[in-house]
Amino acid sequence: MLNDDPLANILYIDLSKRTFKIEKRHDLFEKYMGGAGVATAILHEECPEDSDPLGPDNPIIFAVGPLTALFPLASKTVAMFKSPLTGNLGESHCGGRSAVAIRMAGYGAIVIKGSSDMPVYLSIDNNQVYFRDASSLWGMGNFATGRIIRENETGAGLRAIMRIGRAGENLVSYACVTSETYRHFGRLGLGAVFGSKKLKALVVSGKSSLPVSDIKTYKKIYEEVYKTAVDSPVMKKYHDLGTAENILPLNDFGGLPTRNLTEARFEGAEGISGETFAQHYLGRRLACSHCPIGCIHIAALREPYEDEPYFYKTSMISYDYEPLYSLGSMLGISNATDFLKIMDKVEAWGADAMSLGVILAWFTEAQQKGLIPEGETMGVRLEWGCVEEYIKAAGYIVSQPNDFYKALAKGVEHAASIYGGKEFALAFGGNEMPGYHTGPAAHIGALIGARHSHLDNGGYGVDQKTLINQEMKPQELVDTLITEESWRQILSSLVVCFFARGLFTPELVTSLLAVAGFDLSTDDLQRIGRDIYNEKYRFKIREGFDLDNLRIPERIFETPSPISWMNERYIKDALEYAQKTIVKEITTPDL
Question: Which of 93, 378, 540, 561 could make an S-S bridge to 545, C-beta 3.0–4.6 Å?
């Protein structure tokens, strides 16, 4: 990397002592480039073994990459921490302005340790860190918090505000952190880690300039990347309908989880489809910094005030495929207005919509089967499609007024271990399932993925493009998924939006990195990607993760998927092979 590149700067902040320092770590960025790679290495350094995810020793790590603020679509921030949901590796990605703000503030990574004895928010303005009293903000929702901070902060340059709502304050183990109102560090509970540290928000402002090795080459490659992205049919799809475009194709394919995966097709899919939102609700499109696509779709919900029937309020609410699945088809909600009503509440509370929807779906079925004692629900009676009851139940999960709702706040795996219904508690590695019942690759990919996410290795795509036409041995499928996940470590270390993964080939990546001062071959990239993947698994195994002990929800075998030959033996064989392959590699030196 270039000697004058501020990417090597890591800002360390101690909330307990209210101190900060900056260290140059060329060693980490030269070895792992940035993003997920550097964040994983820092997690090993800063997170003691067996530490409490909600204790002061659990670090919050934000990292960006060498392409951030230089090229289009390199606009994600990686957050790394120990997850309060799974008790293991926590990793979440967020778009918006946060990545560019961190880079322009002069840092490649920010590490937050310790905990405050009172609510605070941090304001980072280039080389200064301010510890602000957040007592008056504690208890506020995401929207109000962002508005007040914007009014009070005067930092120059590009600014990002990352904050939590009541879910994070109340330590809901799948609470998220919201950035720029409509983007999130959504999965695995970063919001609860913020809350445990009494950290209400993080504000980053920056106006640095970035070095490049050859300005003429930089301009030429920039234009090529920009034009390729704008002309791409795939990226046009994301601009036109956003990820909500996936609802109808997945429903037609028979892979859309419905009513807690008792079905894989939803008769009400049209009502929550991307096409319906675009035609009747679309208010505006937004883009992350340095992105020409604009895949963020915002719906305008117009409702009358309860006591003033002739006066209306308009709420602007983001929608994407995953919330539409989890708070839509998974709950039997087929009306776009009803979806937007519950989504608006979830956004204000700051909970991960995907986890919350899966938990509410389990709650519905468990209650219908008589597993939940009547007095535990505080009068809530869930029925598929009844949005008002779902909003009431979600509010109780956030406030946790009794032991039942406290159990739900710790995830579906935990709740089912107390009340029963594990066979239909849809979690993989402790993380609530993503919205794909496409076949074995989707489920195996979520089980063996480092963060148990659909985006770890894109198994759902293997189902739809490959396995629908031909059977693959479980060992071959696992090798395919691990190879893809290893390459995605490069993309998440740059940090590139996964929507553009098809554009960022190894050859293009080496050219872009050369402009940023990195002399790497395509072979180097493949090696680094596998090294990062192995480092993640070293952390997971250190913290007690074992593929042999993973619970496989029985429901995935009860509800037919488009891949008719999927069965339990196939998935177990795949997990046995994955265990041997991964453990052998990370315990063999000099690989």
Answer: 540
Crossing angle for the helix pair 353-368 and 336-349, nearest 10 degrees?
A: 110
Give me the mean pLDDT over the 355-382 stretch. Answer: 97
pLDDT tens figures, 356-368:
999 999 999 999 9
Characterize the bridge pairing of strands 120-125 and 199-206.
Answer: parallel
Percent helix, percent strand, percent coil in the chain, to nearest 5: 45, 15, 35
With CA atoms as reference, report the closest residue to 37 among 404, 356, 384, 495: 495
Residues with Cβ within 8 Å of residue 123, at least 6 apart in sequence: 129, 130, 132, 153, 155, 203, 205
Distance in angstroms (rounded) separating the CA atoms of residues 302 and 316: 9
The answer, yes or no, to whether residue 175 has pLDDT greater than 70, is yes
The phi, psi pair for 374, rounded to 5°, reads: -55, -40
365, 357, 354: which is closest to 416 by C-alpha?
365
Name, in order, each residue with C-beta under 8 angstroms of 214's C-beta and a sequence gap of 6 or more: 515
What is the per-residue DSSP string for 472-533? --HHHHHHHHHHHHHHHHHHHHHT--GGGTTT--HHHHHHHHHHTT----HHHHHHHHHHHH
What's the burial of 551, exposed, middle or buried (CB within 10 Å: 0-12/13-18/19+)? middle
Contact call for residues 249 and 436 (beta carbons, < 8 A)? no
Domains and CATH numbers, the chain: 6-206 (3.60.9.10), 244-419 (1.10.569.10), 431-587 (1.10.599.10)
Return the amino acid letter for 118. M
Residue whose structure tokens are 């003429």? 216
The CA distance from 216 to 223, in Å, is: 11
Provide CB contacts within 8 A for 89, sequence distance 6+. Answer: 43, 80, 82, 83, 450, 451, 536, 539, 540, 543, 545
Closest of 411, 584, 503 to residue 224, by C-alpha: 503
Coil, strand or helix: which one is 202? strand
Half-sphere exposure of 296 (CA within 13 A, CB side): 19
Taking the C-alpha atoms of residue 94 and residue 97, their distance in angstroms, rounded to an integer, is 9
Q: Is the confidence at residue 126, as pLDDT, over 70?
A: yes
* Residue of 191, 48, 188, 197 whose CA lies nearest to 543: 48
Query: Token digits for 171?
Result: 């330590």
pLDDT tens per residue, range 131-145: 999 999 999 999 899
Residue carrying the six token digits 């919205």: 435
Which runs of E-coded beta strand occur in 35-99?
60-63, 77-82, 89-94
> At CA 190, angle to CA 87 and CA 492, rounded to 5?
95
Q: What pLDDT does 588 receive?
A: 67
CB–CB of 282/302 below 8 Å?
Answer: no
Q: What are phi and psi of 540, to 5 degrees?
A: -60, -50
Order of all β-strands in the sheet with 199-206: 128-133, 120-125, 199-206, 158-163, 177-179, 183-185
Report pLDDT digits (tens) over 551-578: 999 999 999 999 999 999 999 999 999 9
pLDDT at 590: 47
Q: Could you tell me the pLDDT band of residue 1, with boundaries at 50, 70 and 90?
A: confident
Q: Are strands 60-63 and 77-82 parallel, antiparallel or unpaired?
A: antiparallel
Is a pLDDT exceeding 70 seen at residue 591?
no
